[in-house]
Sequence to fold (258 residues):
Amino acid sequence: MEIYYMITFFILGTIFGSFYNVVGYRLPKGESIMFPPSHCTNCNHRLGPLELIPIVSFFIQGRKCKSCHQKISWFYSFFEFSCGGLFALSYLIFGLSLDLLIALTFISMLSIIVLSDYEYMIIPDEVLIFFGITLIIEFFFKDGLQATGMHILSGMLAFFTMWGIKKLGDLLFKKESMGGGDIKLMFVFGLVLGYPLAILSIFLGSIIGLPISLIMVSKNSNHEIPFGPFLSIGALVLFLLQIDFNNLIDAMNYLNIF
Fold:
């Protein structure tokens, strides 16, 4: 039964991942996420049912458009597979619970943000607002009104901390050091992770993103690096590992790190 549920959530994740792909590409450009229906971006051929099966259709079509034979990027299938894997992993960690619903909501938001920020350097407000409100509602049903208020307070603290870091960066670098979307994203991180871990995600994301950023800078003459994907990966690692900040501090004290 456990394997059955994992496979089910993996398939569900690939289906949602296919949709999030559309959202991440269209929303930052102000396009409808529903119309026109999924189509080839090269010849505008409308995709049929067999061309819309996540991952599978990519190989059925021989990795190219059925109509114009334009090569299809591996990224689409990789994105769908990643969403499927994260959905299945979430079930394995949280089981059938409200925590699982929160995890899937959080992963869904981060998937769209990683794609849109990498592709367009934009974290859409619509995504943050929709998923932020959804998460608040889920926390209310899971933890009650008072605890949800604490979640919101943590989100506000994370938001203003990131705002302060941005202002300091602007002063040091004499230019815009961070996009507004990154600051708003921190509110959701504080909401889900709690205040201390939300701030820790900044440093973890920076460590993860450093080698990748160096490569991107060498290839990008304007040196603009999207920070949202690295923040998202850092937050996702902390969330799925279920790291408790107090236990982390105790472990560091035990190891005489501080």
